[in-house]
Design a protein that fits this description.
The protein is an all-alpha fold and about 210 residues long. It folds into two domains: about 1-50, Arc Repressor Mutant, subunit A; about 50-214, Tetracycline Repressor, domain 2 (Orthogonal Bundle). It is about 80% helix and about 0% strand. The protein is built from ten helices and no strands. It has helices spanning about 1-25, 30-35, 40-45, 50-80, 85-105, 115-120, 125-155, 165-185, 190-205, 210-214. It is elongated and about 65 Å long.
C-alpha cells in the first residue's frame, strides 16, 4: 500500500511538472492535474493539502534530480581523467550527449527547465518554492565554481574572469539554449551553445601551445 501511495504521489508530481512546462505555472490548476492523472480530488488531497504544497514538492523533486545528475556527471568525468580542465570539458560533453540522446529518442524539442517556467511568474509563486529554486541554483554554481577554482590553479586564465559569473554562465547557456530551441523550433540549439561554452573554457584556460596541439 505504501509503495502504491508513493507511485500515486510521483504520478501527480510528474503530471504537474509536465503541465507547468507545457503551459506555465498559473495555468496549471489542481483540476488540470486531476484531468491529466485521472485521480479524484480525495486522492490528490491525501498527498497535498493545496497547490502551494504541490509546487514545493515538484520543485524539491526536480532539484534532487538535477543535483544528482550533475554529481553523477562530475564523478564520471573525474574517473576518466585527473586533469581539472578536462574533467569539466568531459562533464559538459556527457551532458551534451545525454541531451542529444533525449532529442533523438523523443524526436521533439526539450520542454525546457522548470525553473525557467517559474521565473516568468515569480509574483504568484510561493515564497518557499522560490527560495528552494534559488538554493538549488546556488548549489549548482558552487559545484561548477569549485571545479573552476581547481582549473584556475592549474591553468591561470588568459584574461580576467569572474569565476562565479563563469559558473552561472553554464546554467545561462543551457536555459538560453532551451528557450531558443523552442522559439526557433530547433532542438539542437542547446547542444550548439554548450559546444561554444566548451570552446570558451578551452580558449580561456589552455596555454597557447596546448591549444595548438589539441
Amino acid at each position: 500500500m505504501a509503495k502504491r501511495g508513493e507511485m500515486t504521489r510521483d504520478r501527480i508530481l510528474q503530471a504537474t511538472q509536465d503541465l507547468i512546462l507545457e503551459g506555465g505555472f498559473s495555468a496549471t490548476s489542481i483540476d488540470r492535474v486531476l484531468e491529466a492523472t485521472g485521480l479524484t480530488k480525495g486522492a490528490f488531497f491525501y498527498h497535498f493539502k493545496n497547490k502551494e504544497a504541490l509546487t514545493r514538492a515538484v520543485i524539491e523533486r526536480y532539484s534532487r534530480k538535477e543535483q544528482l545528475q550533475l554529481a553523477d556527471l562530475m564523478e564520471r568525468s573525474r574517473n576518466m581523467t585527473g586533469d581539472p580542465l578536462q574533467q569539466l570539458l568531459v562533464c559538459i560533453g556527457l551532458l551534451t550527449e545525454a541531451m542529444k540522446k533525449e532529442i533523438t529518442e523523443s524526436g521533439r524539442i526539450n520542454p525546457g527547465c522548470l525553473y525557467g517556467s517559474y521565473a516568468y511568474e515569480l509574483p504568484v509563486v510561493d515564497h518557499h518554492a522560490r527560495q528552494a529554486m534559488q538554493d538549488t541554483v546556488i548549489r549548482w554554481r558552487g559545484t561548477i565554481r569549485d571545479q573552476l577554482d581547481r582549473i584556475a590553479e592549474t591553468y591561470p586564465p588568459r584574461s580576467e574572469v569572474d569565476l562565479d559569473a563563469l559558473a552561472d554562465n553554464l546554467l545561462a547557456v543551457i536555459e538560453g539554449g532551451l528557450i531558443l530551441g523552442r522559439l526557433m523550433d530547433d532542438a539542437r540549439q542547446t547542444l550548439e551553445h554548450l559546444r561554444l561554452y566548451r570552446n570558451h573554457l578551452e580558449l580561456l584556460f589552455n596555454p597557447p601551445e596546448q591549444k595548438a596541439n589539441s
